[in-house]
Amino acid sequence: MQFSAPPGRTARCTGRPAARRVQLCLTRPAQARPSVAASAQKTERFDAQICVVLGTQWGDEGKGKLVDILSQQYDIVARAQGGANAGHTIYDDAGNKYALHLVPSGILNKTATCVIGNGVVLHLPGLFEEIESLKKKGVSVEGRLKISDRAHLLFDLHKEIDGLREAELAGSGKQIGTTKRGIGPAYASKATRNGLRVCDLRSLDTFADKLRKLSLDGSKRFGEGYAYDVEADIVKYQELAKQVLPMVTDTVDLLHTAYAEGKRILIEGANATMLDVDFGTYPYVTSSNPSIGGIATGLGLPPSKYDALIGVVKAYTTRVGAGPYPTEVFDTLAESLRAIGKEYGTTTG
Ligand code: IMP
Q1: Which residues neighbour 231 within 8 Å (Cβ) at sequence distance 6 or greater?
Q2: Which pLDDT band, with edges at 50, 70 and 90, does 41 fall under?
Q3: Active site residue 190
Q4: Distance (Å) from CA 318 to ligand 1 centroid
Q5: Could you list the residue range(s) of the whole structural domain that residue 163 is in?
Q6: What is the Å distance from ligand 1's center to 45 Cα?
Q7: What is the reported pTM?
Q8: Cα dist. 241→128, 235, 244 in Å?
Q9: Are residues 128 and 202 in the same domain?
Q10: What is the distance between the alpha carbons of residues 189 and 179, in angstroms, rounded to a whole number?
Q11: Residue 4 lies in a domain
Q12: Is the pLDDT of residue 335 over 80?
């Protein structure tokens, strides 16, 4: 059963408020299959050495909850793509709330090692804020968080450019409705090949030169509207480098070694299939591959090793931001679905 827009309202996308847009979809799949989440709850141990959890819609399907349940059984929990545009809210047994954006949800399992893979775009100040907030709640990442030396760094300049590009697009009513976390511009730097990687933090002199050059691109393109203090960031990153380098490693080697030793690896997808830059509703998508390809390239683990792929689906669909959504529902029905389903994002509100 689907609902169309009420008379006088088109389902065409304009800039959307941050609250998720909702669509009811009560159609049954032709062949109803038991959900893996349900079987995982029934069995004592989910029997897959490498298990991948992906979002199948537009995000916010509840991947974090499932990853949190499964991570109790896994040695390693890894993120492969995306950045702080993703958000997972998890409550522990005592009702404490944890809002995670970059740190894998497995951090709440005290025996799990968490990996941020090469495909992730990493905003270090944001990461350390998250680590600090976890610490305040008694969760230590000490020795348990491993960061790829190949992951690209996302700087405040990328967030600045994200905002400026959205403002430009707003003029023509074509903004994407990004999370303004700098995701698109950071992946653009990676593809342009002038981005900086975590391993660049090992040589701070060349790091400074590279960052100045990268920033010049932004100031040339956006002129006076571009507000980013590159020298201040260079100073800030001297300190951040000291803090992060003990966590930095070759995560491809780490994962392959762990696999060979029989360790169990859970891979936590971020965002979702319909936001995939190749397979989603382009251009209203994110800038990584949240479907299966992004897992392989984002961690360097080949698909032949994956024993289980779990696609998380919720009974209705929600979407944040702009883009096609022909069966969107509006007004009272939308409001009540939003309220009942608590459809307010960890990242977007
Ligand atoms: P970006 O990833 O911030 O560039 O945003 C691109 C589009 O993806 C926007 O429509 C966002 O609202 C959407 N988006 C990105 N990540 C998520 C997510 O984790 N959940 C829901 N929507 C997301």
Answers
A1: none
A2: very low
A3: yes
A4: 12
A5: 153-244
A6: 33
A7: 0.88
A8: 11, 10, 5
A9: no
A10: 18
A11: no
A12: yes
Please give the distance, rounded to the nearest whole angstrom, from the Cα atom of residue 16 to the centre of ligand 1.
Answer: 12
Q: Are both 17 and 143 inside the same structural domain? A: yes
300 located within any domain: yes
The atom of ligand 1 lying closest to the CA of 348 is 12
**Residue of 45, 26, 58 lying closest to 312 (CA atoms):** 58
Last residue of a domain, one of 220, 244, 268: 244
Give the three-state DSSP class for 78. strand
215-242 tens-digit pLDDT: 999 999 999 999 999 999 999 999 999 9
- The pLDDT of residue 22: 64
Confidence band, pLDDT 50/70/90 cuts, at residue 90: confident
The domain tally of the chain equals 2
Confidence of residue 35 (pLDDT cuts 50, 70, 90): very low
Residue type, 104: P
Whether 1 is covered by a domain: the verdict is no
Pocket of ligand 1 (CB under 6 A): 58-60, 85-87, 176-179, 181, 183-184, 271, 275, 284, 286-287, 320-321, 345, 348
Query: Taking a C-beta distance cutoff of 8 angstroms, is the pair 180, 170 a contact?
Result: no
Q: Out of 190, 210, 263, 314, which one is annotated catalytic?
A: 190
| Same domain membership, residue 183 and residue 136 | no
